[in-house]
Each structure stands twice: as C-alpha cells, then as structure tokens.
C-alpha cells in the first residue's frame, strides 16, 4: 500500500487547519471557506479510496499467498507419504543379519538331520539284510532241511538225544551220509 506524501500532507493540513489550536483564542480566519472544505473532503475521499484499494490488494495478495502455501503444503505432504511408503518398502526388503544367520543355521541343521537319518536308515537296511527276521530264518531252515536229507537226519538225531545249542550242551556231529 503506497500513499503519496502529497495526499497525506494535504489531508493532515486540512484536518489540522480546521481544528482550533487553543480554545478561546481567535484565529485569523474564523470561517472556513467552501473551497477549503471541498479540498479536505477530496483529500479524505482520495485517502479512503487509496486505503480501500490497498486493503483489496492486500487481501488478494494474502489469498494468493495462502493458496500458494496450501499447494506447497499439499505437495510436501504427498512427498512425505511417498517417502514413508518407500521407507516401508525398503525396510521390508532389507534382511536382518540375525534372521539371515538363523535361517542359514536352521537350513544347515535340517541338512545335517537329513544326512543322519539317511545314514541311520542305510545302516538299518544293511543290518536288516544281514540279520533276517524269524519268519525268514524259519523258511531258510525248512528249505535247507528239505533240500539236504542228511542235514535233516542229523537235526532229528540231535533232537532225539536232547542236545541242542541253547542248553549249552556240546553239539553233536552229524552222522555221515550213506
């Protein structure tokens, strides 16, 4: 808002010239002329108009500044949301060293466990192949005795005489085949 110094000086001169300086002391001009009043009125009107224009200009400028600031704040808010989103995304993608180490240890432990189970299963399979179950043993004995009559006679003779390996008696030699 720029008020010209001439307008302000004219307004001040007109306003103060119409006031009595000291009450009771007569002035050189006791009456104010119409032209003086009209001049003061024009000065007041000019100042009023300039003030109104200045206020309107200030309001427009403030409104413009407010809109500009509001847009800037909105833009910054959007940028903050974007940065927060990127931060969350990066945090999720980042691997925690302890978690990675725990994962590797768990994987290694699972691998060792699997190797141990394979080894135990292989040993059990070999042992089972080397030591057949009772049904298999019975089948093998029956087949051997059936296929070899001399062995069958020796086993029967041993049973008749009461000697067997379980009682701790000495084994008997089978008789010679005829």
In short:
Keywords: Signal. The protein is mainly alpha-helical.
What does this structure look like?
With 178 residues, the chain is mainly alpha-helical. Among the domains are: 5-20 and 31-93; 132-162 and 172-178, no CATH class. It is 75% helix and 0% strand. It contains 5 helices and no strands. It has helices at residues 5-17, 34-93, 97-130, 134-147, 149-161.
Between the first and last Cα atoms, what is the distance in angstroms?
A: 145 Å
Shape: rod-shaped
Work out the strand percent.
under 5%
Number of helices: 5
Give the quaternary arrangement of the chains: single chain
Largest sheet: none
Count the E strands. 0
The pLDDT mean sits at 77
SSE succession: HHHHH
Low-confidence stretches: none
User: What helical percentage do the residues reach?
Assistant: over 70%
Radius of gyration: 61 Å
Which structural class should the secondary elements be placed in?
mainly alpha
Any descriptors?
Secreted protein, signal, mainly alpha
Topology:
Layout: H1 5-17, H2 34-93, H3 97-130, H4 134-147, H5 149-161
Region (Disordered): 156-178
Keywords: Signal
Signal peptide: 1-28
């Amino acid at each position: 808002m720029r008020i010209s110094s001439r307008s302000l000086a004219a307004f001040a001169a007109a306003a103060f010239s119409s006031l009595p300086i000291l009450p009771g002391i007569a002035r050189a001009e006791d009456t104010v002329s119409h032209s003086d009043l009209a001049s003061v009125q024009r000065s007041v009107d000019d100042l009023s108009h300039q003030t109104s224009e200045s206020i309107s200009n200030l309001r427009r400028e403030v409104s413009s500044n407010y809109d500009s600031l509001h847009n800037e704040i909105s833009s910054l808010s959007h940028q903050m949301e974007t940065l927060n989103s990127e931060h969350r995304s990066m945090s999720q993608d980042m691997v925690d060293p302890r978690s990675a180490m725990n994962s590797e240890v768990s994987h290694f432990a699972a691998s060792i466990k699997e190797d141990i189970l394979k080894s135990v299963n292989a040993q059990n399979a070999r042992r089972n192949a080397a030591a057949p179950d009772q049904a298999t043993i019975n089948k093998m004995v029956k087949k051997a005795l059936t296929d070899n009559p001399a062995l069958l006679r020796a086993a029967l003779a041993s049973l008749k005489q009461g000697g067997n390996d379980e009682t701790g008696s000495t084994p008997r030699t089978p008789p010679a085949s005829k």
